[in-house]
Amino acid sequence: MGNDTGNIGRRAGAGAPPDWLVAGRPHVWLPYAQMKTAPMPIPVVRTEGSRLTLADGRVLIDGMSSWWTACHGYNHPHIRENVAAQLEAMPHVMFGGLAHEPAYRLAARLAALAPGDLDHVFFTDSGSVAVEVAAKMAVQYWINRGEQGRTRLLSFRFGYHGDTMGAMSLTDPDEGMHAHFKGYLPEQVFADLPRDEDSTKALDAILQRHRGQLAAAIVEPLVQGAGGMKIHDAATLQRVAEACARHGVLLIADEIMTGFGRTGAMFACAEAGVLPDIMCLSKALTGGTMSLAATLARGHVYEAFLSDTPTAALMHGPTFMGNPLACAAANASLDLFEREPRLAQVAALSARLAADLAPLTGLPGVVDVRVKGAMGAVQLQSPDIPWFRARFLEEGVWIRPFGDIVYLMPAFTIPDDELSQLTGAMVKVVHAYSDRLAP
Fold it and tell me: What amino acid positions are annotated as catalytic residues?
């Protein structure tokens, strides 16, 4: 497609929706949408690099990398070729009692990449399920060690860990979407991140008070994603790990969003010098190609499940666990991290985001501007989200704000000119928002 940006989002009007969208629209229940008022979704017919080609011929620059998954950009030829070859050989085979090379090779590679002795890999289908498995591992770890009653987890305010029942229960009930389900969800324990001496003492007090009930604490290392793109430093994460160690509580690192380079290192917990007992991975694991997740456990966690007693085993097994196509994509994605300068690209991208978004600092209506790795976020005062989304489309970019956050999480491989279009649109539209607030 080259670098011709002349037709990106510039056609007047979006044209008539395609027949397949009109016919299917009454039957598709969309995510995070009030279906009575939800606008018609935007029909995409092709992806390439950081571009979305729409059914009417317009092209948008994607600043979301499809919910933070397409770290190498769309349609990378190496991933595509490996998935196609695997499709020819074996698209799927059950993981119960059978084995295949893509999954076993991927497990060994993840164990080698992960910090410390996170050597034992349990495959699942999605990030939420990876969190469910991590919680299940943590609770059963204590049961297998003969300690009963440790069935709750500690989570942190502004945290988000997924939409299945157990994962919902770990998401901040005040800031998240799950307050409606009180009484249905398991009741967990919540605390503030220990950013200073007072909040560290408060965390210690909570851990001490609930020690006999807590199996683990779960944290998003360095960036809390869907809770508002909130950044904390390595010292904060280290305080969490130290508090868990003091009180004999397992630590789960939810690296579903941060893993595979997003914060600037392959894994955010390793960047902070923290070794969790359990780590959850998904999103960028397959380079945005298809759904796959993994829950990694350290040796002492894994060994607690080794027994002559059948009920001591981890009784979990998704139907498409370790899908060969998804594992082939993940192996190809890891090849790219080995062969191409992804982390250097993230560092350069981070510097560009910081420089390009800096002029928004201090504008009326702008609460904060923050950048971490390949993530740039602008926090606003009560923004009109539909207005923002419409304005970004007019600028030829796909940027999908939520809550009070307008943010970018582009592919690590995005060309400079396309990144400039994203940041330029962000600056232009936030300035227009700020001007609207002027008396």
Answer: 32, 160, 254, 283
